[in-house]
Design brief:
Elements: H1 2-24, H2 26-32, H3 35-87, H4 94-137, H5 164-170
Helix pairs in contact: 1-3, 1-4, 3-4
Length: 181
């Protein structure tokens, strides 16, 4: 399911990138007569997003059916097995207690768990993962060490950032407040 949600997010990113490029260069697209080409490119990205979303919707339907079955089957089994359970020593009060527990505690807890992991939690996981990927791709190269070799290193000059004491002395003084008349 995470892979399907990732496909949807990537498809949305491609649509955003294409439409951003298209609107930013709309004058050039029209001047070059490339409306059909850009429309086909944007349309292909929209079609990809529709396919990815439909695939995710199918999987969500399966998850919903599984949740429905897993929530109601235990209740149904208790009710169907009630005569046998009573004949074999379970008290009549334990049957309504089990039904109440399953319908009022277990079923809502299961629904909340699946909803949290299957919807919101999974979207959050995929989105944070994608943000981490983008951040790693666009991370700047680490700065060289202040004592590293390079231009000026042989003369003993610093090649790194200025020490904090120098920066604070070079910071501008606060702007005086305007006088009231």
């Amino acid at each position: 399911m995470a892979a399907r949600q990732r496909e949807v997010i990537l498809a949305d990113e491609r649509i955003a990138g294409t439409t951003g490029d298209l609107t930013g260069g709309l004058r050039d697209v029209v001047a070059c007569g490339a409306e059909d080409r850009m429309g086909a490119t944007a349309g292909a990205h929209v079609d990809d997003a529709a396919r990815a979303t439909l695939s995710l919707a199918r999987l969500t339907a399966v998850r919903t059916a599984a949740l429905g079955i897993s929530g109601w089957v235990p209740l149904l089994l208790i009710l169907l097995a009630a005569p046998w359970l009573v004949r074999n020593g379970v008290t009549a009060g334990a049957i309504p207690g089990a039904v109440t527990y399953v319908s009022q505690a277990l079923q809502p807890a299961l629904q909340g768990f699946v909803q949290g992991l299957g919807s919101s939690g999974l979207w959050l996981l995929v989105t944070v993962g994608r943000m981490a990927e983008v951040a790693a791709e666009s991370a700047p190269e680490p700065a060289p060490d202040a004592t590293a070799s390079g231009p000026g290193a042989e003369a003993g000059r610093r090649t790194g950032p200025a020490p904090a004491a120098w920066r604070s002395a070079a910071s501008p003084s606060p702007t005086p407040s305007p006088r009231t008349r």
